[in-house]
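Problem 3 from the worked examples.
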Amino acid sequence: MTWTAPETARSPQLVVGDERSMLQNRLDHHRATLLWKCRGLTAEQLVIRSVEPSSMTLLGLVRHMTEVERAWFRKRAAAQDVPYQHTTEQNQDGDFDDVDTADAAHDFALYRNEIDQCDAAVAPLALDYTFVHPRTGREISLRWIYLHMIEEYARHNGHADLLRERIDGVTGE
């Protein structure tokens, strides 16, 4: 049997709540939207590239967001010493470039696990918690990370809309 990306439920949008709950809700909605854009596609469809010379694919977006989640929440905010899943110093674009030999089911599981790990890593931290970015030396708050991640997902979910439409004509909300 051919593996296909599973159905994904998206949580309803909170319109009233405390700041942390609302930020988490928006982030969770965007996380689920990326998976929702992939639902029902085979591993082969998930690696169909957008247009030359771009290496962007739906699976590449899932792999990329695994790395972005890990970088911001676990490596930077929570100061966990964990390696990246798909990229290396020698291959900075492995998340997008190495999808032809990737295992989509495995990469989807890694992504879902990474989200759980990221949420757990920052759960004890206040939104006002800050750290110094190792490369830029700038002080950054956890609040900023939430806002940045929502922005990052919004941009990539737009890409996912176009990729999905190219693959099978399905358009999103």
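Problem 4, a separate protein:
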Amino acid sequence: MSRRKTYPGIVDVAREAQVSPSTVSRTFSRPGYVSKATAKRIFDVANRLGYRSKEIAPVTTLEVKHHLILLIVSDISNPAFAQLIRCIQHECMRENYGLLIADTEETKINERDSLHDFNNVDGVVLASSRLSDTMIRKFAQHHKVVMVNREVRGIPSVIPDYSSSFESMVDRLIALGHTSITYLTGPEASWAEGMRWRTLFDVCKRKNMPLKRLPGKYPTLQAGQEAFRKFMKQPSSTAIITYNDLQAMGFITSARQHHVEIPGRFSVIGIDDTPNCTLISPSLSSIHIDRREAGKTATAILFGMVNGRNQSNAGKQGLWEIPTSFIERDSIGIPLADC
């Protein structure tokens, strides 16, 4: 009698890596909240055992092309998604495909429903997904999926590489005389939030720069305004880095309303480098992410899957990395008063 082939599971990886199953789960779903050394050990064990190491091949039986692509974004009102949407639309037009856009409004339920409601598409781009790895991988067993701004093992993923830009940013703050940094966090379910925090934590640790966390929760102007009020109760840094530009703009707006000088009292830096960075006063320093390149790369991968074309070489485990850069503007300067 033949025995069914068994596949390694989360318990097997945990045992080999000498960590708990919950740590393995967190490493795959929110790697930014696991130490770099632990994450590397778990990924190495997972690769050796074959756990989630192969790209998922969706079912292809009775496949009919609809000439439609679905793009799901977490918040269409966020300017950070505008360039991505436009680029993907242009690429779809080049391929004579239509584009459907679903806005999940930062909720997992809306995102899950969007995946189930739009079945008559040839492929899906998930941008900044808030769903669990397990749910995404299950969906990818029956649909062609590419991730943007989120890494899911076994699924082609296009992500920003923050390492060099964050190092340039921290070096510049040190040169200006800042002695500590406060990071305003983003959505708890955001994969990007975890990676941004871990990258910043690693850079600050190497530079001996004290780093604090200020809970922000939502990636909105209002969250930035509320964060300013919380921060001013016990200001402990002269430099504030926010999860995204919207939070930074909200922080600066509240600072101006309370006659707090930016960058005189505090320097503020956002992430995303949206066009609005140059419209606010002072103009906002930010981390530039080439979303046009991200969108072009993601659609090239997806159309390659849809049309059976070979793709260019990617990094390990189907990972495409997009470089980022630090853009300095008027919102940072020499601190005029110690906190």
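Solution to problem 4. The chain has a mean pLDDT of 88. DSSP finds eleven helices and eleven strands in the chain.
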